[in-house]
Write a structure and sequence with these properties.
heterodimer; A: 86 residues; B: 690 residues; alpha+beta; five-stranded antiparallel beta sheet; 23 helices
Amino acid sequence: MLLFCGLVLAGGFVFAAKQHFAAVQFGYENETLRTERKRLIEENQRLALEKERAIAPDKLEPAARKLGLQPARPGQIGNKPRIDTD
Amino acid sequence: MLARLVARSKSRPDVSLSRALSVAAFIGFWMLVVCARLIYLQFSQHEGLANRARQQQQNAIETSPQRGELLDRQERQLARSVQTVSLFLDPDGLDTSALDCNAQQIAQSLGLKQAELTKQFREAHAEKRRFLWIARRLDADLANKVVAMNLPGIHAQLEPKRYYPNGSLASHILGYVGLDGQGLGGVEQFYNSKIAGEPGQLFLEKDASGKPYESYEIASKPGQTVVLTIDQSIQYQAEQALQAAVQRTRAKSGTVIVLDPRSGEILALANAPTFDPNKVADAKPETRSNWALQNIYEPGSTFKVVAFSAALEKNLVKPDDRIDCQMGAITVAGRVVHDHSRFGTLTISEALAKSSNVAAIKLGVRVGDPTMYEYIRRFGFGSRTGIELPGETAGLLRKVERWQPSSIGSIAIGQEIGVTPVQMVAAFGALANDGVRIAPHLIREVRNAGGTVVYRAQPEQRRVISSETAIAIRGMLEGVTLRGTAKAAQLDGYSAAGKTGTAQKIDPKTRAYSATKHVASFVGFAPVNNPQVAIIVVMDEPAGAYHGGDVAAPVFREVAELILPGLGVIPDIEVKSMPELVAKVSEDPERAAKIREEQAQSEEQRKATMPTVDSNGGRSGEVVYAVATRKAMLMPDLRGRSVRDVARTCAQLGLQVEARGEGRVLKQSPSAGTEVSTGQLIYVDFGRYQ
């Protein structure tokens, strides 16, 4: 009986220790993922900034003019033809 | 064996028992002491010890909040924050050789001065400081080079950095932030408390090697997103046109504001020169000033619409009524004001188109001081517009009780009053919006981090003049562009209305109007019958041509022709392409001659935008005095003038003269530029030059 109780107690300790070390291990992994998430958010912010810089008017205008485009003139503005959907 | 042991124990029973009891007592006492100590630690020292344990195992880091974004009306980003790396030194436990080695490697990597860095490191070490910034807000690539070196005592911390992806675009609206992320100009400053957000905290549990294995975070509260009324494209076009105009005219500075008169929304607000908020430390302080709100200037002829509007609103005149312009001269309280041309009788509409000073003054006098003052206030002059930017000035407008007898003659033609460009464009916005003035504003809405709108602009609206009067004034202002001083503001495909202004600046040395420094302006709107935009162009101290019709009106045309098609506004008049116009001029000599004739007439009419005030003994064009101050005027410079000239000038000014000697003026008292009032006695010494 004493031996059985001792085994149960020892088993409990081993299980608790395993749980503890597993929790610590998950903690490390969690930290790694949190850091990675943060890095990706920062990367996303940097890319969004690059995108905004790339489509800034002072970049777009020369590029558009190089392609032969120019600002719309008054004569190009008119009512769109009405499309009958029936 | 067993019997022998029992026999031995029986022979020494007392000794064993007493030893056992002693050991038990000792163990019991020891356990008691341990328990007592445990109880003491648990109950008396718990808080302190728990804190020490947390300090050893946990690391609390303040996390910077993400500053809110600034967006234009099309939701394009104008300002956003990105996490960057800042490096700092903790010299604790390092010797000087390690510090010097650190300084050398960091200086090489970041391009800093090694001697300076070494000195800073050593000072921090000597003062036993635990924290010293090395470099802040570095780009990730650069910072990672230093972090990878794994130098002792060198630590990295993330800090958000503000970026303006469009560079200098709309910099006077957006403003900029300081090193610690606080708004220091523009919307960044005005809405700093909303944009900044609230910091959070990150708690890290670390193992014996210092490696974090668990964390929990009190999340930072991101700043709110501010959606502006400006349109990035319109802003860009306005800035480009203004920049080109400032270079072309060699002006000291310039301002363009584009306003939607139906909503009061500012679509663009540009100043030149400008600055890049990403490199604000490199910008000259004067380039950071927002002249659109802070520049008080005398509006000149653009202000005449107030007198005309008040007179029409009070039914004192109608647009077709005729007014005698007295062949171009009028005297108000001893002060003579001239027109640029000797106009006889004109209709009220013609008088505005030709920018007659005499007509404007006569209307002002008929309206009367109190009513004139009331309408000036109604149009929004003399008080801040309430635009959401720091540093706005109210302009200069004296209360009517402090007006001099000659004030109405000055104010009716836009002198003796100071306005800001944003006040002026808002006033014309009221004319364009059927007489209802909607407060100009820059903020469309504010959203929290979840995207919920927490503020939506509801600008103040008030009726300034009746709809009928506004429509009549609009028609008259169209005449200014068709037949008057602002033909250069005629648009291709769109009707336009507006008013030119050319004002002399006051020379701070003489406190009199300068003959060489001017403010040229044009303010107008288009299309006339359904105005979509009101635009003001103000050019400060242009070199060469300085009339509003020459300098500012072309910028209005350029901006309006670019943005109206972009806004999808359908042309309301005939569209003429530029190449066709050029061809007609060059191929048809008669047509070319006619255009030259029209240009000559236009030149003459443009002169009307600058009121010439008094004359030097009848010599036209030369200004001998002008500004009306608290004492109504400034003493002219009479030196070198003849007795007759002095007598005539002083008679026109209403000054009494005590003359001594003969010849030309050698001395005068008071001196030139001193404030004098009508009826004051002045002393003039005449003599012959040696």
